[in-house]
Amino acid sequence: MCAIVGIYDNDNAARLASIALFAMQHRGQEATGISSSINGKIHTIKNRGLVSEVFDDDALKILKGNMAIGHNRYSTAGGDSILDAQPVFAKYKLGEMSIVHNGNLINKNEVREELTNNGAIFQTGMDTENLIHLIAKSSENRLRDRIKEALNKTIGAYCFIVQSRSKQFVIRDRYGIRPLSLGKLKSGGYIVASETCAFDLVDAEFIRDVRPGEMLVFSEKTSEPESIQLFEPIFRPCAFEYVYFARPDSDIDGKNVYTTRQNMGKTLAQNDKNKDFKADMVVPVPDSGVPAALGYASESKIPFEYGIIRNHYVGRTFIEPTQEMRNLKVRMKLSPMKSLIKGKSLLVIDDSVVRGTTSKRIVKMLKDAGAKEVHFRVASPEIKFPCYYGIDTPNQEELISYKMTKDEICEYIQADSLEYLSIDDLKKSIGDDRNYALESFDGDYFVTK
């Protein structure tokens, strides 16, 4: 669930790209990078760490030019080496290119094996590097045609931005699984970004979402991006963007994330099957559980209270690469409001339960702080299947809802009761007008080509 951005035809391209990446830091905290292009030369800076740590004024002075692409890394393929940070840069027959990618290519191993057998040498463990080799090996005379040929051998969820020395090519897979939006910068030029929250910070006006199966070409020859429909669209946007990953102030494929999360909370309250208790307050697990908790409180008429306080200097726990780091960050990040919750029955709202370890720690923390009862409510369905389209849950054995029943999970996390949003209610909350990607909940692995 990385973040990508492209800036075209703006003299402050790299700086604007860094600002956009800062706005999308929630999508990846492991590494960040930017490639800019000037006078036929691509310059790249990338490193481990947050955007604010990597891109100071000295770094941005190096990244000159009126076009740039950038990336925040959240690893789903590859390792934690600096070589696995993006953009991925290469020199080939037609010159230089740099690529950023959000998503996951499910046929990466087969493609890599074939490329290796034919003499390719890989520098990283990333699936993104496959595209570099496929493009370089093509015999087509134009980069756009090489990209088309490479994508015909690429299966999975992807948003790519390919930057040459003078052009940018923006591609979204035929299913539109990962989000990507196009905007117009008020200071001049265009921006493409994973989320619209980036547009606000760089003062850009939203134009539209990049269509599933579409390629946009930015070049000096046209005042507006050229649109090429590469593949017939089969629209299946990822429901987990609305549940957890996207920032609440983003609009994903025409739907506001904050509103959909509120709807999830309201629907959860409407269909709560366990009402044999009287809760004193609705308490969100901050921050991603807040909108759903507000929706639940509004619908149930139970007071909303910040019974858990978050330290905002600690990043997101789910996207940490190891369980040890996730456990440590939970302890550092969340603190109970003891004077508020002591002796009270709490109805705690979280956005999802993946491995269950965080939920268990939260319940224990609240009871240790004096809560009389902790009733746990989850504003999404049970996650029973791994996602191969960009969410880092590759091992089904890690998913608590695969291993345990709801009652067993309730006992494991030591809650007094536990309820989830159903799949039908999730679709109703987001909107029944689309066929969403729900593979984490229903095991429908629909990507085949």
Can you give a write-up of this model?
Helix 9 (257-270) packs across helix 10 and helix 11 (323-333) packs parallel to helix 13 (357-368). A hairpin with a 2-residue loop joins strand 14 (251-252) and strand 15. The mean pLDDT is 92. The protein is elongated. The strands form five sheets. The protein has a seven-stranded antiparallel beta sheet. The protein has helices spanning 13-23, 51-54, 57-62, 108-117, 128-137, 143-151, 197-202, 240-245, 257-270, 290-300, 323-333, 338-341, 357-368, 400-403, 406-413, 423-430, 439-442, and strands at 3-8, 31-38, 41-48, 67-73, 88-92, 95-105, 156-163, 168-172, 181-185, 190-193, 204-209, 214-218, 226-229, 251-252, 255-256, 281-284, 308-310, 334-336, 345-350, 373-378, 417-420. The chain is built from 17 helices and 21 strands. 31% of the residues lie in helices and 25% in strands. With 449 residues, it is an alpha+beta fold. The protein has two domains: 1-234, Glutamine Phosphoribosylpyrophosphate, subunit 1, domain 1, CATH 3.60.20; 255-440, Rossmann fold.
Features:
449 residues; alpha+beta; Glutamine Phosphoribosylpyrophosphate, subunit 1, domain 1; Rossmann fold; 2 domains; 7-stranded antiparallel sheet; 6-stranded antiparallel sheet; elongated; PRTase_dom; magnesium
How many domain modules?
Answer: 2
| CATH architectural arrangement of the largest domain | 4-Layer Sandwich
**Average pLDDT, all residues:** 92
Per CATH, the superfamily of the largest domain is Aminohydrolase, N-terminal nucleophile (Ntn) domain
Placed side by side, the strands forming the largest sheet appear as 3-2-4-1-10-9-11
Instruction: Provide the structure class.
Output: alpha+beta
Give the distance, in angstroms, between the N- and C-terminal Cα atoms.
20 Å
> What's the number of extended β-strand segments?
21
CATH topology of the largest domain: Glutamine Phosphoribosylpyrophosphate, subunit 1, domain 1
Specify the overall morphology: elongated
Strand content: 15-25%
Can you count the helices?
17
Describe the biggest sheet? 7 strands, antiparallel
Which consecutive residue ranges, at least 5 long each, have pLDDT under 50?
A: none
Domain Glutamine amidotransferase type-2: 2-221
Pfam families: GATase_7, Pribosyltran
Pathway: Purine metabolism; IMP biosynthesis via de novo pathway; N(1)-(5-phospho-D-ribosyl)glycinamide from 5-phospho-alpha-D-ribose 1-diphosphate: step 1/2
Active site: 2 (nucleophile)
